[in-house]
Structure formats: structure tokens, C-alpha cells
Amino acid sequence: MSSTTHYRTCPLCEATCGLTITMADGSITNVRGDPDDVFSKGFICPKATAVKHLHNDPDRLRSPVLRDRSGWREVGWDEAFAEVDARLGSVIESHGRDAVAIYIGNPSVHSLSATVVIPALLRALDSKNVYTAATVDQMPKHVSCGLMFGAPTLIPVPDLDRTDYLLMLGANPWVSNGSLATAPDFRGRVEAIRRRGGKVVVVDPRRTGTAAAADEHIFIRPGTDAFFLMALAHTIFDDGDMAVGDLEPHVDGLADVAALVEPFSPEAVSVRTGVNPGVTRRIARELAAATSACVYDRVGVHQQEFGTLASWASDMLTVVTGNLDRPGGKMFPYPAHGRRDPEEPGGRGWRTGRFRSRVKGYPEVFGQLPVATLADEIETPGDGRVRALVTIAGNPVLSTPNGRRLARALSSLDFVVSVDPYLNETTSRAHVVLPPPSILARHHYDFAFYGLSVRNVANYSPPLLDGEGPDEWEILSRLALAFLGQGASGDPSVVPQMALAYLVQQATEPGGSLAGGDAADVIGELQGRAPIEQILDFRLRSGPYGDLFGRRPGGLSLAVLEAHPHGVDLGPLRPRLPQALRTASGKVELAPQQIVADVTRLHRDLRRSNDALVMIGRRQLRSNNSWMHNVPEMLGGTNRCTLLIHPDDAHRLGLVDGAPARIRSRAGIVEVPVAVTNEMMPGVVSLPHGWGHDEPGVRLSIARSQAGKSSNDLTDEQVVDPLSGNAVLNAIPVTIEAVAPPP
Ligand SMILES: Nc1nc2c(c(=O)[nH]1)N[C@H]1C(S)=C(S)[C@@H](COP(=O)(O)OP(=O)(O)OC[C@H]3O[C@@H](n4cnc5c(=O)[nH]c(N)nc54)[C@H](O)[C@@H]3O)O[C@H]1N2
Ligand SMILES: Nc1nc2c(c(=O)[nH]1)N[C@H]1C(S)=C(S)[C@@H](COP(=O)(O)OP(=O)(O)OC[C@H]3O[C@@H](n4cnc5c(=O)[nH]c(N)nc54)[C@H](O)[C@@H]3O)O[C@H]1N2
Ligand code: SF4
Ligand SMILES: [Mo]
Questions:
Q1: Which residues, other chains included, contact 212 with Cβ-Cβ below 8 Å and sequence gap of 6+?
Q2: Given CB 3.0 to 4.6 Å as the disulfide criterion, which of 38, 210, 299, 428 pairs with 697?
Q3: Are 633 and 621 in contact (CB under 8 A)?
Q4: What is the pTM of this model?
Q5: Domain residues for 418?
Q6: How many Cα atoms sit within 13 Å of 265 on the Cβ side?
Q7: What's the number of domains the chain is made of?
Q8: Residues 119-140: pLDDT tens digits?
Q9: Does any domain span residue 285?
């Protein structure tokens, strides 16, 4: 038996760890951390070994399946696409393009194929009804950064390796391994802050592993982080500690911010936040005094009614303490595949609301509508009603608010097609499912996460196996051809070819990185590779470190990455302002008009009485949203679908550890066992999301054995953060009662 060793970036979360995979006779024999990986240096988490199971999982679809009256049957690719073509075509013909909705889920961001082809796919679909997992996740960050810096993808990340002070809100990297801050061994990097004499403070309604390991943990009432952050800024202005530093000439709106934060004193907000005003003042002074500091806000803070304000306030604090764009503060990554910064800052700026959703009138954000309103668009009669749905790498029945209602709505559609390797709670309601090949049969390069990385690195993984079927880019390209009415049987490579031609044209125009170059010559130089490799190669070569097609010998290209299977380290983050700014003014807009207007809503909310009992979510170490519970190693232990509750609340409600409780919200009812623990803040309960696998039709045999219940049967689709359309998944008002034991 001949054994081979391969190096690959793990695609299962944002940390981009290097894996060493050994194979013999086409089977995986071992998966471990790659000690030579330039970024992760051997670190992996328990999920990494799931790569092996995911590859071998008998429930994973290997060929398309089609559902008719007699149930599911396997079909060939041509038959599957003929069905898609005919049925989507008929919906578009009878009801127009807006009648086809698309939902794109989280793993698409980890798929090179999907990131490369999806923009073209969306142009081909040309429907208003575009939904993604971003509106149950980080959309508030895109909005606040779009407004402040001029581009929704210009997101500053904490410079973890150099900071002296880390204030973390709504993040639990001990479990999640970090998000909107790509940092393999996030935990080790945070522990190093303390070792070098810095301080780590965690703000969370639950004493998580991350909170327990910090210098200080502050309990906060869920959904009130914007108040707390405003009070920190209030204190900094009040004390006269505001100090923007060298960036000051490039910042607009400081005086407006001083006025905005005025009403939010630590005392004024303390009833809502539950944070002692003395603690708030002390943290503000520590932030102001720290040699360098980062305010890092993540998903717990974004999935709230004031998500965008909280996201903005966090970056605003970074600016007013002089910590934006400098080592140890929050900085903008400069990825190898990105565009080079121009000489001068400024651009067209960024806005939302170019169109509105039909039923609720929500503004478009980043080309999307809030997934919380997808069921409205399916159920509400009238022109433009959604009649068909395409899902790609998503499971909105378990991952979006009031998933129960969405499930019912899906069953009423004329046609649903899913690109997904499993028949889960969403895809089992489809008519056709098109499975992508195994993770190991794909090209991998993290377009999304190297743009959010705490160090500039680049790493490419070639496929280890021959495809089990078409690659994911081919599947998505054939869908694009179906959307265009060109017949899904056409040559899929025309789609990436068009995308490449567009990129090359932009780069060869005046001001582009290859200005004056000949587009045909450039495309000619890229030949001989798979279409998505050509796009990656082009972006690397024309990017900030690229060889510029001979103009900068020794620069990066795909060939260079291929020669470095452990990755290429491009160094620590470096300042990029003001050149990177894309606002119309060419400055950091600290007080954008939409934010200013929304602060009025926040101010009004100061008087709201605190709901008696509220629910938050919980991520689990050996889990990945809804889709890895079919891996045996992921089940059991602490990965259980239980409701965490403080002993005082349990006592008051007559709940006993381990016994079932009935939880009710406006949206629904769920019964799960209770786990009594003083890691919860009194008045707050926690239920993990992504469970609820016991529905008929779901083909996840292992997940079904420990199905759990879906927390999104309780979350409410009627409330969103108005600026971003993001769902509110934390601070859900609930009532809880003991379930009487059976007689
Ligand atoms: N209550 C509550 N709800 C939440 C959250 C929360 O904190 N609380 N978190 C939210 C967040 S942050 C997110 S990102 C969403 C996630 O929401 P979704 O993206 O809708 O759901 P996932 O559970 O990630 O499901 C991913 C799907 O992709 C499939 N898949 C896996 N790999 C691939 C691939 O390579 N290609 C394709 N085509 N398919 C693939 C899986 O089989 C699965 O069906 O959940 C959100 N929902
Ligand atoms: N093992 C594992 N890793 C994952 C995932 C997974 O499911 N499992 N999911 C991946 C995905 S899609 C994402 S987006 C990232 C997310 O990564 P993180 O942003 O680190 O998310 P969580 O681990 O959910 O941590 C959110 C924290 O916010 C707290 N919280 C809830 N409500 C509030 C609030 O109102 N205010 C404050 N201050 N805190 C609050 C919760 O108690 C929790 O500790 O993780 C990714 N990594
Ligand atoms: S931390 Fe994320 S990238 Fe690293 S091994 Fe675990 S799942 Fe993979
Ligand atoms: Mo996410």
C-alpha cells in the first residue's frame, strides 16, 4: 500500500488551518495539523478530523437526486439539469425573474468555486429576491464599514499578535475559532496578549470558556451592547481623552459623534445593560490609556435589534482612541488576491436601499434582502411573489428565524433546486438536489478569509482526488446558463471565462494594475489551467504582491503558491489609510447620516423595560451550524441541545437539571432538557442553533439519533435590525415552564 502526504487548508471555519492528510489507495488514512503551515503552525481543532468522515459519509450524495410522486431517485447530471432548466424556465416565463429567489448559505464562502462563480450567477438570475446567510450573521458589519470606509468589505480586524488590550463583545473564539478575524489558534494568540502583560476583557451574557480565561468578564443584558459602547465613548469624550492621533486629518464627523454619545452616560444606560457604571467608566479609561487596543465585536453583537449601531460604535471607539489602522489596533488586511490600493483615497461611497422588498419594504443591502422576510415573499399573493427557490450551501429551515414558518412556505413553492451534499431539513423539501464533489476533490483558496486575516498570508490547495462528478463551479455555471435561458447543457466554462474577461478588462484600463497591457495577451498567459484556477492566478498576479505578468519579476502567482504547499507569509498587517478609503469624501465618515438617524431609535429604547427572560444562542466546539451532526465524533459530550439557565431562574420556575422544559416565544414552542449552571447571567437562557434533525425526509442517519430541537423555531422573523436587515437571534423574549413528567 503506497501512502501519499498532502497539505491542505481546512475549509470548515474561518481559521484556515493547514492540514496534513495522508492517503493510501484513494482513502484518507490520517488527518493532522501541518506544523510547517506558515500561519497555523500545526494548530487544528477537533473539527479537522471530520474532513475524513465527511468524505466517507454514506449519507453524502454522490449523484443528483430528483423527487417525484414516488419519492427520491438518483438521476444523471443531464437529466437533473434538464428538469431544472424546464421548471425554472417555466416559472420565469409565467411570473418573471423576481419570482425566482436564491438563498446562499455559509459554506459557499469557504468554496473557491462558489466565490468565483456566484457573482456571475446572480447577474444571470437578475432577481430582486437574493438572500444569504449574511443577514443572520455579519450584515451589520458590512453596513457600518460601508458607511464609514466606503466599501462593505473594508472591514478592520483586531491586530491580535501586537495588541496590548483586547475588548471582546459577542464572540467566543474558544469555541468558534474566531470570525471576521481569521487567526488559526485564536485562543493561543489571545493567551499571548496576557503573557506579554496586556489585558483581555470579555463582555457576554454567559461566562463562556473565552470569558473564563480573560482578565475580566462583564455580564451584559443581551441586545444592549450598543448602549454599553456608547457609554464607553461618552466617558472618553467626557474625560477629554479623545485622541485620534495621526489619522485625525482623514476623519470627518468627530464633533457629531461627541454630540451623539452625550445622552448615553454610564449611569443612563446601566438599567438597560445591567453593567455597573463604575465598571463602564473604568473600562473606558483603560481603553483610552492602553498603548494599543482593539474593540472586537462579533456575532452575538450583530444578531441584535441594534446590530449595526453596535458594529459602528465598536469601530468608532477604535478611531477615537487612536487605534484604527495602526499596529496593535484594528487594521485592514491586504490580501494577495485583492486590488492594489490607488495613490489617492476616495470613491463613489456606498449606500443601501437601491430597491425595497415587496411585502415589508425593507431596503436592499449589499444587493440582498433580509432572509427574515423570505417567507413573507413566498406566502403573500400578488405581482412579484416568489414561486421558485434556489438554495446553495444553506439550510435556512434550521438557520433562519421562524424556520418552521419558512419550512411550510417552501413546501408551497412550484420548484426548489438545491446545490448541497445532503438531504437535510431544507433540501429534503427541494425537487432536485445537485451535490458538489467531496472537499478533497476541490481547489481551495480562501478568497473571503484572507481579506479578514490578522496576518497577510496566501495558501492554495489543489484537488487531491479526481472529481466524483462535476466540480462545484461547473454546477453553478450550468445553473447560470439555465437562468439565462441558454440551456443548462451548454459549456459551463463560458461563465468563468466571462468573469475572467471582465476582470482582465478592468485591470488593463487606465488606473488598473496592468494599465496599458493587452487583455488578449494576459488571457493567453493564463491558458492551460482549469477555468477557476485561471481566475485565481489572474487575481494573484495582478494583486498587491503579484508578478504583474512580468512587470514585477519574483512576484506572486499561482505557480508560486503551488511551489509553497505550506503557504506564503506576506507579513504582519500594515497601515492602509487613507489610500484604501472609498468614501466620497476620501475620509473616514465617523458619523454617517443613517447612523445618526438610528441613534434616535436607540435613545428611545433607553426607556424600554427589560424583558423578564430572554434567550441567546450558543455555538458548540464539535459542531458547525446545522450541518456536521452527521459526523459521529461530533455528537455527545458537551455538544447537546440543552437550555442553559441560571440556578435562581431554574428555582423560581421549578425547573430541574436534566428534566425537559417547554420554551415559548411569539414564534413557537420547543421542548428541550434544562442544564442548570451559574455560567448564565440571571434572566438569560441559552439554546444552541442548528439542531432539529428528526423531520421526515431528512437523510442524516447519525444526526437523527440525537436530533435535538431547532432554536430558530423560537426566534422571531418579524423583527430585524432596520439598517442591515439582519435577523435578531439574541435577546428573544421567552417564557419557560417545566414539562410535567408523564404519569
Ligand atoms: N439562532 C441562531 N441561528 C443562527 C445563528 C445563531 O447564532 N443563532 N448563526 C447564524 C450564522 S452565523 C450562520 S453563518 C448561519 C448558517 O446558515 P446556513 O448557511 O443556512 O446553514 P448551515 O448550517 O451552515 O448549512 C450549510 C449547508 O451547506 C451544505 N454544504 C456544506 N459544504 C458545502 C459545499 O461545499 N457546497 C455546497 N453547495 N453545500 C455545502 C451543508 O450540507 C448544509 O446543508 O446560521 C445562522 N443561524
Ligand atoms: N465549533 C464551531 N465553530 C464555528 C461555528 C460553529 O457552529 N461551531 N460557526 C461558525 C460561524 S458561521 C460563525 S459566524 C462564527 C461565529 O463566531 P463567534 O462570533 O465567536 O460566535 P459565538 O461562538 O456564537 O459567540 C457569540 C457569543 O456572543 C454571546 N452573546 C449572545 N448574545 C449577546 C449579546 O447580546 N451581547 C453580547 N455581548 N454577547 C452576546 C454568546 O453568549 C456567545 O458567547 O463561528 C464559526 N465557527
Ligand atoms: S479551527 Fe477551523 S480551520 Fe482550523 S481545523 Fe478547526 S475547523 Fe478547521
Ligand atoms: Mo456565520
A1: 679
A2: 428
A3: no
A4: 0.98
A5: 60-151+364-444+460-490
A6: 5
A7: 5
A8: 999 999 999 999 999 999 999 9
A9: yes
